[in-house]
Design a protein that fits this description.
Blueprint (H helix, E strand, L loop, with lengths): L15 H7 L2 H17 L6 H25 L1 H4 L17 H22 L2 H22 L6 H5 L6 H10 L4 H24 L1 H7 L4 H4 L2 H20 L9 H22 L10 H28 L1
Helix pairs in contact: 2-3, 2-8, 2-14, 3-5, 3-6, 3-8, 5-6, 6-8, 8-9, 9-12, 9-14, 12-13, 13-14
């Protein structure tokens, strides 16, 4: 008597933790923080409920972009050690669920921002999501070593959105904050890529460290740090901030440039070591939190 073939058990529904993981919570914390800072430094009073709604929309929009990024990149995430345990490459979720979740979050965040706050903030939020998903993830990521340079604009929008949510318009100060994050992204991300270079090489992603080599990547990280520092300090001489931020910005950027110089002229080839690169990557996160946080303190103190 023939036995029936053994069938694989049906895939279990994803847990809520998997949907949460799709939003990239660590990155989300920085996005929410910069968006909140943009809201707080704006020269306008906003009801706390509307302020909370604006930050919620920024968080949902960023989570949508991160989810759609993982939906599209599930194949290369499976080839990289630091990403292969994400919900999609690990098989804990099907791609369709991730797609629906990402699109739903994105559409809801933009509509809510438009109805609760204003159309300017909603439009910038929509552009930020589309930029990260279409321009960076789909178009640039697998095609050019300049992917993170141009794609860095996607992560630079939150402060601009926060300001626009409070005021309904855009001004010079949030534009400078946009440029700060835009110029901060290459040295921050290239420092990371230098000690996970084998991951990108295995996945076939043309990151600068894979295509141009570690020496050129180190030099580029160092060079990008200079215009970043200039933009970071600019609000003080332009009269957009007070000395609290100005002095702190000078000190924070001197430290950043010092670490970037160590990376730029380092000859360390062992990814397991690369102490200078790891220090720059770690400091760059603290640097951005501190820069935005001190600017808020400065604006509130002198307002």
């Amino acid at each position: 008597m023939a036995t029936a073939p053994i069938q694989a058990p049906p895939q279990l529904p994803a847990e809520w933790q998997d949907f949460w993981a799709l939003t990239k919570p660590r990155v989300l914390s920085l996005v929410v923080f910069t968006g909140l800072c943009g809201l707080l430094i704006a020269p306008a009073h906003i009801h706390p409920v509307l302020g909370f709604t604006a930050i919620l929309c920024i968080a949902l929009g960023a989570g949508a972009a991160a989810t759609l990024n993982q939906w599209y990149e599930a194949d290369i995430d499976a080839k990289m050690k630091r990403t292969r345990n994400r919900p999609l490459p690990a098989g804990r979720m099907d791609r369709q669920s991730a797609l629906h979740f990402g699109v739903g979050l994105g559409v809801f965040s933009v509509i809510l921002m438009g109805f609760a706050l204003n159309l300017v903030a909603a439009a910038i939020l929509a552009v930020s999501i589309l930029f990260y998903v279409v321009i960076y993830t789909v178009w640039l990521k697998r095609r050019t070593p300049q992917n993170i340079v141009i794609g860095g604009a996607a992560g630079a929008f939150p402060a601009l959105i926060g300001w626009a949510a409070a005021t309904g318009h855009v001004a010079l100060l949030p534009v400078l904050l946009f440029l700060l994050v835009f110029l901060w992204t290459p040295p921050h991300f290239w420092a990371l890529s230098l000690f996970v270079n084998s991951d990108y090489a295995a996945a076939g992603v043309p990151m600068m460290s894979v295509v141009a080599g570690t020496k050129a990547t180190r030099l580029q990280a160092f060079l990008y740090s200079w215009p970043m520092a200039a933009v970071a300090i600019a609000p003080w001489p332009l009269g957009l901030s007070g000395p609290i931020y100005g002095v702190a910005a000078v000190l924070l950027n001197l430290a950043f440039l010092g670490l970037a110089a160590r990376v730029g002229f380092s000859r360390e080839a062992d990814p397991a070591l690369m102490k200078a690169e790891r220090q720059l990557f770690g400091y760059s996160i603290l640097y951005l939190f501190a820069s935005f946080g001190i600017l808020v303190v400065d604006r509130l103190w002198y307002s």
